[in-house]
Design brief:
The chain is of the alpha/beta class. It contains eleven helices and 13 strands. Helix 4 runs parallel beside helix 5 and helix 6 packs across helix 11. The protein is globular. The chain starts with 10 loop residues before the first strand and ends in a 7-residue tail after the last helix.
Length: about 325
């Protein structure tokens, strides 16, 4: 593999305080990258083009990683759809366009597996994009992420840039968001079971009937995949391996039901009560498993098992989120 990413490159990681962005920064530092640029929201408002333009004019950047996004679970997506589509569109449009006008030739855009149709054949291939209707509960967010993919693809077609997009499966891990109002399923369940344990509750109630199947990937594995893909040469994309590929799936290649996930988390937290599923609440898509054949074929595979990843995430939660048992 011919590297197009060198240790001396200046790499701007947008969204470095988020779970994925912080994991990418950790991995870059661990691999010897020293020129990593990060900014906070007070320094640069990513939803404001003028603010983003000013930032790029002030720094020499070789590579941009777009991990910044407004994210949330089913509840958050259902209650704030306008916020999700607007903020995510602004962030990606401003960063990609400003980076291009600043002469930056390399970008890695992080999307989401929710870009695919609700009833995609399983496992979902990259080519399934735009072949059917999206899941209604997160459609605005998904449309924003699809626009990000198409932005990268269109700049590449028109200007010959090297903007890549990765579509991660459901991520979890150190630095996750454990707010029950807008978190994803893994941190939400970890917190629910933990609080039920310390409050001696008889049961933990979970949205849906537990039948929906999901794939999960530990965030440090996602960071590893990102850096791996950032190192691809153009010839890798132009070869028979990844012909005309605008985005690439990143996942573990396996899934389990929400019911099975809940039982696994119950064991890790050591909660002794029961589990009650509320079938009146939405399940989301019945199944969402990514086909990761492309990524596996060029040498990348996940390393962290679900049990190990969940344990590390719970340990981090205990050290950083739980305050003497208070919710």
């Amino acid at each position: 593999m011919n590297e197009v990413l060198s240790r001396g490159d200046s790499i701007f990681v947008a969204g470095h305080r988020g779970m994925v962005g912080s994991a990418i920064v950790r991995k870059l530092k661990a691999q010897g990258f020293k020129n990593i640029v990060t900014v906070n929201r007070k320094e640069v408002d990513l939803t404001n083009q003028q603010s983003v333009d000013k930032f790029f004019s002030s720094y020499k950047i070789d590579y941009v990683v777009i991990a910044a996004a407004k994210v949330g679970g089913i509840y958050a997506n259902n209650t704030a759809p306008a916020d999700f589509i607007y903020e995510n569109l602004m962030i990606e449009c401003n960063l990609i366009n400003s980076a291009f006008r600043s002469g930056i030739d390399r970008i890695l855009f992080l999307g989401s597996s929710c870009i695919y149709p609700k009833y995609s054949p399983q496992p979902v291939k990259e080519s399934d994009l735009l072949t059917g209707l999206l899941e209604p509960t997160n459609e605005p967010y998904a449309i924003a992420k699809i626009a990000g993919i198409k932005l990268c693809e269109s700049y590449n077609r028109q200007y010959g840039t090297h903007y890549r997009s990765v579509m991660p499966t459901n991520l979890y891990g150190v630095g996750d968001n454990f707010d029950l109002q807008n978190s994803h399923v893994v941190p939400a369940l970890l917190r629910k079971f933990h609080e039920a344990k310390i409050k001696n509750k008889a049961n933990v109630e979970i949205w849906g009937d537990g039948s929906a199947k999901r794939e999960f990937l530990y965030v440090d594995d996602m960071a590893s995949a990102c850096i791996y893909i950032m190192s691809f040469s153009d010839s890798m994309y132009e070869s028979n391996t990844l012909p005309t590929l605008s985005h690439i799936n990143v996942g573990s290649g396996g899934d389990l039901s929400i019911s099975e996930l809940a039982k696994t988390i119950k064991d890790i937290v050591q909660f002794e009560g029961g589990i009650v599923f509320d079938a009146s609440k939405p399940n989301g898509p019945p199944r969402k498993l990514l086909n990761v054949t492309k990524l596996n074929s060029i040498g990348w595979h996940f390393e962290t098992s679900l049990v190990d990843g969940l344990q590390q995430t719970y340990d981090w939660f205990l050290d950083n989120v739980s305050f003497n048992g208070a919710s």
